[in-house]
Amino acid sequence: MTRRLLRRLGRERGYSLVEMLIVMSILGVVMGSLTTVFVQASNAEFDMNARFQAQLTGRLALDKMRREVHCASVATPTGSSSSVTLTLPSYCKTGTGSITWCTRSVATNRYALYRVVGSTCTGGVKWADFLAPTSSATVCSGALCIFNYTAQSTTSLADLKVDLPVNIRPAKSVELYELIDDIVLRNSTRS
Questions:
Q1: Of 44, 69, 85, 95, whose CB is crowded by the most CB atoms within 10 A?
Q2: Host domain of residue 88
Q3: For the whole model, what pTM was predicted?
C-alpha cells in the first residue's frame, strides 16, 4: 500500500518548469495590457478635464461680459477689435465707470481674455484662457480680434458680437469649442 501511495504522489508532483514559465509569460502579457489601458485612460481623463475647464472658464467669462454689456450705455471702438471698453452707469451691479475686456497673447497661438478696470489693456483679471485663432477670430496687432461692435442707429440699438474660440490644442481644430454671441447694449439710445 505504501508503494502505491508513493507511485501516485510521484505522478502528481506539481507543475513543471516549462508550464510555470508559460503561465508567467501569459500573466505578464495580461498585466502589461491592463497597465497600458490604465495609462491611456488616465491621459484621456486628464485631457478631457483640461478641455472642460477651459470651456467652463470661457462660458463664465461670456456670462460676466454679457451682464456688463447689457448694462453698458456706450462701447468703443466700432468694428472688429481685440478689446472693447464699456461705460457702465452707476446702477450696474458689476461696477461703474470704464471697464475694458481685451485679449493678450500668453504663448504661441494661445491668447487669454482679461477684464481691466479702466480704458487700457494692462493688468486686470484673466477670465478665459486657451483662446485660439480661427477664421472668424483672427489675430490683429498681436492680439485676438474677438469683438465686433456695431454702434446704434435710428432703427437699432448698439450690438456687440463676441467670438470666444476655446481650444487647448490649437494644432487640432477638431477640439475647437466656439462660443459666439450677439449682445445688445440695452441702455444705448437710438440716434
A1: 69
A2: 32-184
A3: 0.75
- Give me the number of domains the chain comprises: 1
- How far, in Å, CA of 60 to CA of 168, rounded? 17
The closest alpha carbon to 165, from 175, 173, 177, belongs to 177
CA dist list (Å): 69 to 25, 138, 146, 165:
66, 22, 15, 19
Give which of 184, 151, 188 is closest to 76, Cα–Cα. 151
Is 122 contained in some domain? yes
Would you say residue 25 lies in a domain?
A: no
101, 117 contact by CB (below 8 A): no
Contact 114, 127 (CB under 8 A): yes
Is residue 61 scored above 90 in pLDDT?
yes
Residue 161 counted as domain residue: yes
Average pLDDT over residues 77-82: 85
Strand 79-81 to 83-88 pairing: unpaired
Give 120-152 as a DSSP string: S-SS-EEEEEEE---SSS-EETTEE--EEEE--
Question: Could you tell me which residues are beta bridge partners of residue 100?
Answer: 85, 116
Are 115 and 101 in contact, with CB atoms under 8 Å apart?
yes
Q: pLDDT tens for residues 96-105? A: 889 999 999 8
Q: Is residue 3 part of a domain?
A: no
Identify the CA nearest to 64 among candidates 75, 76, 56. Answer: 56
